[in-house]
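Q: I have 73 residues here and want to know how they pack in 3D. Can you give me a structure?
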Amino acid sequence: MNFVLESEELTAILHRVYDNIMVDMEELKAKRNGTCSLSHEDANLKSVNELQIPPRVRIRGRPKNRLGSKLDK
């Protein structure tokens, strides 16, 4: 039981630290871009969306030479 309480406390601490870091990063990004700072909730939502969107990968070469092309056959 004690372990569960400690685990919940640590989880809450980690969430707070993560939220604070995300806000700090958004403020630094806003300073670099010369834009206004976002609110705490907006910064978190925007950061989560950036993490969920997969990066665009450029594909080079002919289709038969692309990685995974043999798996499609």
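Q: Anything worth noting?
A: The radius of gyration is 20 Å. The mean pLDDT is 71.
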